[in-house]
Design a protein that fits this description.
about 70% helix; 13 helices; Serine Threonine Protein Phosphatase 5, Tetratricopeptide repeat; mainly alpha
């Protein structure tokens, strides 16, 4: 028989999956008051952190994620920690990178961990070169993994190489056609806009809106649909050299 805390947590999870984070967050808070086991508390805190993030409250998400990490350093908790922290300020981002480096060091050929560290790194200009190299390594091992294909494509975008970015992120979309991802579709819309494919860009942004984006991305998508991209395009820069142990040898061998 489920305990009261498990029932409350289960109800909160139903709300979260239905994107009713206004109901999920207080339900998780109630469940948190009922559990004492450290791992169980970490689970609830992690779920509540995710709900806060989806609702657009990054400081609350970071606070909960730090508390979850204090209680449990399992792989799942650390991966969620990295995901939450890369949306924070510079200090928070650096904390996330440190945890991501630990995950990578434990299993350096893991596509999941390469992508976690690489994508977190490219969120800041100072991490772009290292992140690009790591994502190429991840792509080398996981060319059918839509997440790492998208991440590498976004690194190309940030270097101003829009055609290469387009080829990769179109591929990422096709690899995940059964479960559209708002972030990937948003990326593709931005790339189309830079390539002066304005109608295609707006169509991708509309699809991203239909794919249940978080609150922050939803606002950004609505602004893009209204005004397009207003920030300057990333300038074209030389791509770092990448030496790969196996698999595709050239950057254009996609």
């Amino acid at each position: 028989m489920l305990t009261s805390s498990a029932l409350v947590a289960a109800a909160a999870d139903i709300f979260r999956q239905a994107n009713r984070h206004d109901l999920a967050i207080p339900a998780y808070s109630r469940a948190l008051g009922m559990v004492e086991d450290p791992e169980d508390r970490a689970d609830v805190l992690g779920y509540r952190a995710y709900a806060h993030r989806f609702a657009g409250d990054i400081p609350a998400a970071v606070t909960d994620m730090r508390a979850a990490y204090e209680l449990d350093q399992s792989v799942d908790t650390r991966l969620l920690y990295v995901s939450i922290m890369m949306d924070g300020d510079q200090r928070v981002w650096r904390d996330g990178i440190q945890v991501a480096r630990g995950l990578f060091a434990e299993q350096p050929d893991s596509v999941l961990r390469l992508n976690a560290l690489g994508y977190a790194l490219i969120q800041r200009p100072e991490g772009l070169e290292e992140g690009y190299r790591l994502l190429w390594r991840g792509f080398n091992f996981g060319q059918q993994d839509y997440a790492v294909v998208d991440s590498l494509g976004w690194a190309y975008y940030l270097y101003g190489h829009f055609e290469e970015a387009r080829a990769l992120i179109e591929r990422a979309v096709s690899l995940n056609v059964g479960d559209p991802n708002a972030e990937v579709l948003d990326h593709l819309g931005d790339i189309y806009w830079r390539l002066n494919r304005r109608d295609d860009a707006r169509e991708q942004w509309r699809q991203a809106l239909a794919a249940d984006p978080d609150a922050i991305r939803r606002r950004q998508l609505e602004q893009k649909l209204s005004r397009g991209l207003t920030a300057s395009a990333p300038r074209v820069r030389e791509l770092p050299r990448v030496d790969l142990p196996e698999g595709p040898r050239q950057r254009d061998d996609l």
